[in-house]
From TrEMBL:
Organism of provenance: Esox lucius
Protein name: E3 ubiquitin-protein ligase MARCHF6
SMART domains: RINGv (SM00744)
Pathway assigned in UniProt: Protein modification; protein ubiquitination
Record has Transferase as a keyword: yes
Keywords of this entry: Acetylation, Endoplasmic reticulum, Membrane, Metal-binding, Transferase, Transmembrane, Transmembrane helix, Ubl conjugation, Ubl conjugation pathway, Zinc, Zinc-finger
Keyword Iron: no
């Protein structure tokens, strides 16, 4: 068995986070399903039409992710 620590991956697309596409943990899920890319979560929310995690039932928190204060359209943290 390999004891090397595995990198965190998105629970939707199964890819790692990058500086351009960081991983977030917008609910209280833990383990391998804790992380998700913002874009993946937005697509899933459009598909599911729910504002909460279907696994842990925690309501996702929507807050701006930019820092300039003028270009924000709302993001997920």
């Amino acid at each position: 068995m390999d004891t090397a620590e595995e990198a965190d991956i998105c629970r939707v697309c199964r890819s790692e986070g990058t500086p351009e596409k960081p991983l977030y943990h917008p609910c209280v899920c833990t383990g391998s399903i804790k992380f998700i890319h913002q874009e993946c979560l937005v697509q899933w929310l459009k598909h599911s039409r729910k504002e909460y995690c279907e696994l842990c039932k925690h309501r996702f928190a929507f807050t701006p992710t930019c820092w300039c204060g003028t270009c924000c359209k709302g993001g997920i943290l």
